[in-house]
From TrEMBL:
This is Fe-S cluster assembly ATPase SufC. Belongs to the ABC transporter superfamily. Ycf16 family. It comes from Paracoccus niistensis. The keyword ATP-binding applies. Residues 2-248 form the ABC transporter domain.
């Protein structure tokens, strides 16, 4: 499980405080959503968990299955079972999708002290995963994300996720800019990968994704803190009334 306690983070350069005590536990098998107004620190939370440079943790902890994430290099975090899907998947011209997936899988295995997959075993695995997600084999031959539609990029990201079999998947506004069909694809992919051992943290600005990926818990973030947590109905409340009442209530408390 992912356990974040009292996480305080500031920008390294400007010293500006962005996260002001985030506390959040995502137990194994659960799907939690983080919603909140723009600029509340949702992306910063995912960046810090992934080990992106430029952020300084000034207080608090983040562990995955009891292991200190903040002490690990980004590739060690991946080996420990963390997967992050970002808003804008990168295009990598000249690198075939298969090569990319194989490199990612083998880097993860190496970091875990496991042997690399043989070509044959890798091919078998990627075909099996692609088939389960209804992904066309043609997509595997193209350069990573180059010329992919928004929906194809998302599918590809779900395939990466399926290949790496993460313990903890974080999706940061992976739905923004997607049409309804592409969003449904993301949701179907995530739902197909839900399991008792795997957890998800779904960061989204819009409620509509949560119609398809029904979360166990919804957290509202504002100004660097989780100000309210509840069930799926909390997302519906935001959809109906916006954040105003929730933030006013939090400010009173
Ligand atoms: P959210 O994802 O909830 O919209 P962010 O985590 O992206 O929020 O941003 C939180 C706050 O931190 C915002 O005020 C944003 O402007 C600021 N911020 C985040 N990263 C940087 C950065 N690298 N440089 C300057 N400001 C930043
Ligand atoms: Mg934002
Ligand atoms: Mg963001």
């Amino acid at each position: 499980m992912l356990e974040i306690k009292n996480l305080h983070v500031q920008l390294e350069e400007e010293g500006k405080q962005i996260l002001k005590g985030v506390t959040l536990t995502v137990p194994a098998g659960e799907v939690h959503a983080i919603m909140g107004p723009n600029g509340s620190g949702k992306s910063t939370t995912s960046y810090v968990l992934s080990g992106r440079e430029g952020y300084e943790v000034t207080d608090g902890t983040a562990t995955l299955d009891g292991r200190d994430l903040l002490e690990m290099e980004p590739e060690e975090r991946a080996a420990a079972g963390l997967f992050l899907a970002f808003q804008y998947p990168v295009e990598i011209p000249g690198v075939g999708n298969m090569t990319f997936l194989r490199t990612a899988v083998n880097a993860q295995r190496k970091a875990r002290g496991e042997e690399e997959l043989s070509s044959g075993d890798f091919l078998k695995l990627v075909r099996e995963k692609a088939k389960a997600l209804d992904i066309d084999a043609e997509m595997l031959k193209r350069p990573v994300n180059v010329g992919f539609s928004g929906g194809e990029k998302k599918r590809n990201e779900i395939l990466q996720m399926a290949m790496l079999e993460p313990r903890m998947c974080i999706l940061d506004e992976t739905d923004s800019g997607l049409d309804v069909d592409a969003m449904r694809l993301v949701a179907e992919g995530v739902n197909a990968l839900r399991s008792p051992e795997r957890s998800f943290l779904v960061i989204t600005h819009y409620q509509r994704l949560l119609d398809h990926i029904v979360p166990d818990v919804v957290h509202i973030m504002h100004d660097g803190r989780i100000v309210k947590s509840g069930g799926p109905e909390l997302a519906l409340e935001v959809e109906r009334n916006g954040y105003g009442d929730i933030l006013a209530e939090a400010a009173d408390a």
